[in-house]
From TrEMBL:
<feature type="domain" description="Signal transduction histidine kinase subgroup 3 dimerisation and phosphoacceptor">
    <location>
        <begin position="176"/>
        <end position="241"/>
    </location>
</feature>
<keyword id="KW-0902">Two-component regulatory system</keyword>
<keyword id="KW-0067">ATP-binding</keyword>
<dbReference type="GO" id="GO:0046983">
    <property type="term" value="F:protein dimerization activity"/>
</dbReference>
<dbReference type="Pfam" id="PF07730">
    <property type="entry name" value="HisKA_3"/>
</dbReference>
<keyword id="KW-0812">Transmembrane</keyword>
<feature type="transmembrane region" description="Helical">
    <location>
        <begin position="541"/>
        <end position="565"/>
    </location>
</feature>
<feature type="transmembrane region" description="Helical">
    <location>
        <begin position="31"/>
        <end position="53"/>
    </location>
</feature>
<dbReference type="GO" id="GO:0016020">
    <property type="term" value="C:membrane"/>
</dbReference>
<dbReference type="InterPro" id="IPR055558">
    <property type="entry name" value="DUF7134"/>
</dbReference>
<keyword id="KW-0547">Nucleotide-binding</keyword>
<feature type="domain" description="DUF7134">
    <location>
        <begin position="400"/>
        <end position="573"/>
    </location>
</feature>
<feature type="transmembrane region" description="Helical">
    <location>
        <begin position="428"/>
        <end position="449"/>
    </location>
</feature>
<feature type="domain" description="Histidine kinase/HSP90-like ATPase">
    <location>
        <begin position="282"/>
        <end position="376"/>
    </location>
</feature>
<keyword id="KW-0808">Transferase</keyword>
<feature type="transmembrane region" description="Helical">
    <location>
        <begin position="60"/>
        <end position="77"/>
    </location>
</feature>
<dbReference type="InterPro" id="IPR003594">
    <property type="entry name" value="HATPase_dom"/>
</dbReference>
Amino acid sequence: METIRNWLLPALLATGQIAWLWPGAGLAGEGVPGAAALVAVLGAVVAETAALGRRRRAPVRALAWSLGALLVGQAAWPDGYFGVGAPVALYSVAVRCPVPVTVRAVPAAVGVEWLLSLVHVGVRPALASEWVLGALLYVVCAGLGEARRQWLRGRSLATRLLAGAEEARRRAGDTERRRLARELHDVSAHHLTSVVITADAARRLGDSRPELTSEALSFAERTGTETLTALQRLVGLLRDVDRPDPPPMTARIEELIAGFGRLGRPIDAVLPDDLAGPAAEAVHGIVREALTNALRHAPGAAAHVSVLRGEGVLELSVDNAPPRGSAPDGIDAVDGLGSGRGVAGMRERAAAVGGELTAGPAPGGGWRVRATLPDATGPWGPPEGAGRRDVLREQRLADPALVFTATLLPLVFALVTAEEWTGASLRAAVPGLLVVTVLLTAHAVPLLWRRRAPWPAFLGVLATSWLWPAAVAAAALPSRVSEFFAGGALAELLAVYAVAVYGREAARTWPAWGAAAVSLSGTLVATAGADGELSGEGSMWPAAVLMFVPLAVVLAAVFAGLWGAGLAVRRRRLRILAWDDFALAGALWHAERAADAERHRLAAKLRDAVLHPTAALVEQARQGRLEEVAAKARSALAAMRELLHSLGESEEDTGPGLAPAPTAADLDTLCRTVRTAGRDVTLRGLPEAARDLPPAVALSAYRIVEAALGAGDRGPARVTLRRRRDTLRVTVSGVPLAVTGPVAERLKVRVGRGTGHIALEQAGVVRVLLSTRPDPAPAQEEASPSSHA
């Protein structure tokens, strides 16, 4: 289908040119070029056709070749070579390229056209009309192309938003699992780990330090109660839908640091007084994770927490010294209590707010965690005014092109007749032409605001038209010049159309066409009366009335039809945008429902696995049973770890259960399924390329091939996987429907989630390059937070 779209128009233009070459020109009595000129014309047709066939992939190159073909064809056959390819190629440049490229392309095309006009016409008055007409042609093509580019840009943006929403819907369950896993790790793991450490220390030192038993029981009861509260929030008792503006976090972070200090380690901190927002939440989570790791692996070692505010960023550092030979109060390093994802969790928390985090050994020993976070203190969610851009009103070339056309098109007819004027009449008409040019320009300038302010632009066009009879009366313009004011009616046509398309409450914009008909009829009649055309017909007023009424009726019919066309275009566009909004809202609704279902399913597992053992821990602490407290804490911590590992098993939302996600190794099964459906699919390079791939890469490869093969093509396809060093190359050919439209946007979203690159070729080839490098934050980093641990 894409190939037909690329070559249909060039083929039609070439067929029309060849048909005019033979037998059209001969039948019309026109001269036929000789042998050499015939070869040159045919060569120009071939070059132009080949260039236009690639106008979508290489528009600038297509324009250059089309202009070259225009020069050759016009030189060989000035009266018979059409050269329509150059305006078409310029239109493609405006559609496919940025505005600066189009702005540079228009003078190049106009320059070639002016050069040909100078050669063919010579230095005569008619040359001016040729130049104006040539400039109008290319400027209008560029303006229409820019309008089309803006519309396609809006459609692409809507498609990308919908693709992102569809991807969010597909991953809603997995996203909710990850969020709950992070929250569970941040809350339960740290609280329960602290209970285990303090209970074990109190049990070992109970004989020499009996007061530690009561302190450990009190700490276990207090911490268990906090854990219960946090877990109840996680199971859905508090829905986190409309998050309020975040309160200041400095006091909470200071309380967190003081709590760790009470466990027997010296900690000093430097914090701003007004930490708030997502970055402050991330600081709280990272500090809690870092100090817990230090407590687990370097007990008793001093720690330093620093948060410094720079230019729009927060610089966080958490440093702990190497562990001492023996920890105070008998608190030893505790192994085996972590979930194995502490450093990775801190990196995820930093990345969630747009920051970065590094963790590793400090130069002088010990361990250092450093993070750079954006200093955003506002509410969670997208910034105000970050919605979809109104591309219907955002034009940079279309409206200036229309103003240029409305100004100069009436002058083209005047310049065409200038060839018939004698020297004296030409000299007398030049000042009048300058006045007409100025007035037509002032009449058309309000069209620049026809999208943003259609009614003021419309009223401005009507008001400036009444300058015409005043100028004719004041400057005594001859009738042969003032009659070209009638060409300024093009501005009224455009203004009425703009009111219908862009005005508010479109159904109530109908007075625009009536007002335009009455105003323009009155202007033209007044102009005719001012230049004396009505004075020779007896009394001027009856003649003016006889001229005004039929003219108003005709113009009213024309304006009403144009207003109706604008209203139809407006409704069509609004239907398209409404469908986009409906589809986007539907995808987001389904994503929220999927997240709710996953949340409720996991809530039951969370209650059974962690909430009930934690409640038993609190009860045992209230009864003063230290041994049972330690046992329940370890049991709850083990259940929490098992739940965390189960939450991390799946990368995709695969349904009500936690079934394993498909990987690249399953592509053979996918291709067999497609072949069963009647489509020829070839798979190459699977066993070697899919071996030992990271889970995320294996899943992405499968989803990319699945989306490309499911685009709707019916022809044969080929899937090739190639592994080279740290990259996996996935190539899917024979899928022309996958390189454009929603499928292409979904593929871009999928690849954009990771460290990959994608290339979509118009021939129907999808090429993806995925990095197979392992996660730079391996789990064993948490197991060794200090070089001395």
